Amino acid sequence: MHEPATPWPAGSTIVVKFGGNAMTHEAEDSLFSEVGKLQAAGVRVVLVHGGGPAIDAELAAKGITTERIDGQRVTSAETLAVTEAVLCGTINKQLVRALLARDIMAAGISGQDCGLLTCDRRLPESLGFVGSIRAVAPGLILGLLEAGIVPVIAPLGVAADFSTAYNINADEAAGAIAVGIKADALILITNVDRVRRDEQDPDSDIAHMTPHQALVFATSDACRNSMKPKVRAAGSAVDGGVLRAQITSSTGLTVAAFAQAGTIVSR
Question: Residue ranges of the domains in the chain?
Fold first, then answer.
């Protein structure tokens, strides 16, 4: 029998989150090349992107101050409008064009489309229009995958009464989507090789965690800044039924060694 050309068997579904400081032009080019190989091997791929640096730059250009509480962007109505424009109108469509240029059929959507990600307002209220995901409606994503199209998803959700958009952490969005579509794997691409018990100590990296260990570590003082939502998303996804999650700097998704890359969360 012919062996699949990737670590993922044909028919698998994986959700890949990327963006922010981890995604240089070279890394993006490498990742999209891998997505094409995965599609050719019969693996279904969902892409969820961030865009923090681009949002920060646009806010600065407009003279809007960026404020964060526990690493989360405080999102006023003014900030929300900029966030939506940058994520949905600029970054999302740039990524779709880059995929189409590689003969990869892709469609750009956000968590608002078809009520994909419905949200409650996250506490504290001082965070503004920041959402906590209440529910995932997987139909749109599953329909695109069935048609052979790569969904490219911007991390914005919508209120349950559809009265407003909400800004959502991209790692949280990817994890919830992975659970909602019953994905086989969640890949969170970052700019460090592995999660560390001490971010200043390269010898303290963590090769494996159970979902319980990940969720506990995510609440600790040792898990800091942007790593906190990644570890929490990985633990929650596996706890919710995803077979495995990986937090890694590698974009070599089709290389056999990728199966051991980064920090792996599994049962």
Answer: 13-266
Q: Rounded CA gap, 45 and 38, in Å?
A: 8
Upper half-sphere CA count for residue 27 (Cβ side, 13 Å): 15
Dihedral of the alpha carbons of 6, 243, 115, 158, in degrees to the nearest 10: -110
- Give the homologous superfamily in CATH for domain 13-266: Acetylglutamate kinase-like (3.40.1160.10)
Predicted pLDDT at 4? 44
Residue 5 confidence (pLDDT) above 60: no
Whether the upstream peptide bond of residue 7 has omega within 30° of 0, thus cis, is: no
Residues 6+ apart with CB under 8 A from 101: none
At 149-187, the pLDDT tens digits run: 999 999 999 999 999 999 999 999 999 999 999 999 999
Closest CA to 41 of 186, 253, 187: 253
Write out the DSSP string of 87-152: IIIIIHHHHHHHHHTTT--EEEEETTGGG-EEEEEPSSGGGBSBEEEEEE-THHHHHHHHTT-EEE
Contact 58, 152 (CB under 8 A): no
Determine the Cα–Cα distance for residues 191 and 41; give it in Å rounded to an integer. Answer: 27
Taking only the tens place, the pLDDT of each residue in 29-73 is 999 999 999 999 999 999 999 998 999 999 999 999 988 887 788
Report whether 139 contacts 151 (CB < 8 A): no
| Alpha helix positions (H), 118-244 | 139-146, 170-180, 211-218, 227-239
Strand, helix or coil for residue 38: helix
DSSP element (H, E) containing 186: strand 185-189
